[in-house]
Amino acid sequence: MADRSLRGMRIGAQSLQSEDGVVFADRADYTYRCETCGRETVMTFSTEADLPQEWECKHCGNAATLLVDSKPVEVDRSGEKVARTHWDMLLERRTRAELEELLEERLTYLRARRGQQKIGA
């Protein structure tokens, strides 16, 4: 086993690549303010990157808004879907009066069926 190991090299501990000739992207700091806790978070992004309008606050976890010239940007929420419940989808298909009528029919059926069953049979 010892004759198969590489001598003089710590595998995984050091990279064989160097940073010679590497050009790093220009970076800039952007500030996000949380309206819930009032704290500001400074994030570093590439100057060519598309900035997110909101960032998660590292203190409370709520949404922090990007500040431009010390003013928060207006967050565009037009593309967000509103969560619909089962009740909302049901009301799209039927009126409340129809639902009450169906409920009465079903209760009548269940009560009639319960009365016809024999105990112990």
Task: Just name the CATH architecture of one domain.
Answer: Single Sheet
Helical proportion, percent range: 10-25%
| Through-space gap between termini | 76 Å
The number of strands is 5
**Low-pLDDT ranges:** none
Let me know the average pLDDT: 83
Please outline the major beta sheet.
Answer: 5 strands, antiparallel
Describe this structure in words.
The protein is an alpha+beta fold and 121 residues long. Among the domains are: 27-74, Rubrerythrin, domain 2 (Single Sheet), CATH 2.20.28; 86-116. Helix content is 24%, strand content 21%. The protein has two helices and five strands, in the order βββββαα. The chain has helices spanning 86-93, 96-116; strands at residues 27-34, 40-46, 54-56, 63-68, 71-72. Strands 1, 2, 3, 4 and 5 form a five-stranded antiparallel β-sheet that branches. Strand 3 and strand 4 form a beta hairpin. It is elongated. The protein starts with 26 loop residues before the first strand and ends in a 5-residue tail after the last helix. The model has no long low-confidence stretch (mean pLDDT 83). Forms a complex with the RNAP catalytic core and with free principal sigma factors. It comes from Agromyces tardus. GO terms for molecular function: bacterial-type RNA polymerase core enzyme binding.
Write the layout of secondary structure elements.
Layout: E1 27-34, E2 40-46, E3 54-56, E4 63-68, E5 71-72, H1 86-93, H2 96-116
